[in-house]
Amino acid sequence: MHGASQISDFLYTARLKAFRERLHLGSQKIVIFEDTKSVAKTVSDKMAQGFKLLLNGYDSGHGDEIIGLLANAEHLECMVAFAKSSASEAILEPLKQAIARGMTARVAVGLSLFVTDPAMLYELLKVEKNSQNKLEFYLSSAEETFHPKIYAVREPGGHRVIVGSANLTAGGFSNNYEASVVVNDRDGALMASVQEHFGGLIEEGALTRATTARIDGYAKLHAVHEAWRKMASRRAEKISRGDLHSLEVLADRLADMQADDSPYGFAAQQTYRARDRLMARRRVKDIAGLGKVTRDNFLEAYEGLIECFHSGGLHRGKRIVSQNSSLFICALAEVLELNRATPAQAFELLHRHFVGIDRAGINVLTEILHSLDNQRYAVMNQNAVSGLIVAGYDQYPLRPLKTNVTPELYEQFCRDAREVQTQLELENLSEVDALFNYVYWLDE
Predict the structure, then answer these.
(1) DSSP secondary structure letter of residue 187
(2) Sign of the four-CA dihedral 180, 69, 89, 107
(3) How many Å apart are CA 403 and CA 405, to the nearest integer?
(4) What total of structural domains would you count in the chain?
(5) Which of 363, 342, 365, 340 is nearest to 352 (CA)?
């Protein structure tokens, strides 16, 4: 078993190897060698020239560099997406000491996605209140995700700026794979840009001063989100292992869809899909009766068919399909002769023909079957497979192809889709497919 030192060496080397030989920064380059001594020398040389690459490594990382900025800083500008209590021990005392020495600071923390710990916000607010107006503490207020990671200081001899991926967390400081650039900003131009950007965010209302009431409100929402996140994580783990089938997510999105009065909402989709399915059924019969036809005439008929379908991207393969029009026509004529065929039987018949028709895939095949009977045949495409996976039915390929879907697998797919239909009290498989599309395309 490897010792801790060996594991750390391995992780550090792996991180270095993850970067290519050159990292481009504008027209300049930082050369990264896999040998750790070469890295240290190269980074040192580049810092003398104005910048260096900062990684979390074996003996140093973002935390050391960021805390080091505070040692002689006269002013700090800090903007991070997330701040967690895991970093409080490392950063709060050096921050207090720097402020006591006379450093001024502006710190902004994002509240997006409820990742930031409320406890860390209370700690920073306490530091602000004890700073004698030397620290200004801000929280993100915009609906858009607040996601910068910038640490910039003014020092007696110049300015230094860190821009990269590390948040104010233990992971960002040392444990995560992070990468940033440390800039020796000699003339202060970059520092001035950071300050201007910070000020602009305040002016436009994207950042507002932290208050106890604001943090209290966030803390309540954070507790709810954290509880649901933990529960969802446990349930997702069970579903991914196949231990649980759950329609909770689909039921929740169905409620959203039913309340949605846009063209994507449930009522609108019921109308569109009922109309489109009847039209598609007529056009399937029209194509089946074409007999010998020119390629252009077939293409026109095929375009009319696929515009009734709700699988995406079918038009991209229409000209290739038209190269095998006689085979396609024969397939549709034969499937119309089937009488109440099982999903496996109907699938096998069309699949036998469609194997020889490039770009007539599982989506086209099952859309045709669905148009003929939306109580028996489900549409099988990437959206539908993703919808079943959300409910814990994970035995289907993410990209259904003629090479990985068998008649038996399609039969099972239809059974599972009908189970979802029954449990959610939907009328037919068209409504199930509409829900799967809604979850796939409009999930927040």
Answers:
(1) T
(2) negative
(3) 6
(4) 2
(5) 365
